[in-house]
Amino acid sequence: MTFDFKPLAMLPLIHQAIFEIQPFAMVKQIRLQVEDSQDLPPVRMDRERILQVLRNFIGNAVKFTPAQGQVTVSAEPREGGLRVCVRDPGVGIEKENLAIIFEKFRQGPPGGTEQVRGSGLGLAIAKQIVTAHGGKVWAESKPGQGSSFIFQLPS
Questions:
Q1: Which of 10, 68, 98, 118 has the largest CB neighbor count within 10 A?
Q2: Nearest CA to 82 among 42, 34, 127?
């Protein structure tokens, strides 16, 4: 992957990703909510690559959120950079599977009655992009309580 790093604001990218995912959310009557801090620092990033991460996280959240649910995207200054979190109220992920979901071709086992599958590449690519930015990516989840996918970039 090639990168074009420039200091940019994160909030317009979050809003663009939500705008692009909104039609998929509307089909399931899922509300996409943005919570943002007022003083977000600009971050040195590749605009298209970070949009790719946001699309992946938000798209996955919509995929795993039950109909009429809500996906929340938040951004806040954190530890010399910026943290973005995408939260969903979906089926959640078992603790032992949190370690493998960012590996290529790996997915957690399907939860609930609805089997939702993908290629197993989206989260691995997202991790590669965030790592190339000098950042870190992780997920927090409890079965039956939804999931949070988080990435943090240095400013």
A1: 10
A2: 42
> By residue range, what is the domain housing residue 107?
33-154
Check which CATH number belongs to the domain holding 41 and give it.
3.30.565.10
CB 119 within 8 A of CB 107: no
Q: How far is the C-alpha of 7 from the C-alpha of 34, rounded, in Å?
A: 22
Tell me the mean pLDDT per 10 residues along the chain, length 155: 94 97 97 89 96 97 96 93 96 90 66 50 95 97 94 94
User: Rounded CA gap, 105 and 43, in Å?
Assistant: 30
> Crossing angle, helix 122-132 and helix 47-64, to 10 degrees?
150
* pTM listed for this prediction: 0.90
Q: How many domains does the chain have?
A: 1
Asked if 35 contacts 73 with a C-beta cutoff of 8 angstroms, the reply is yes
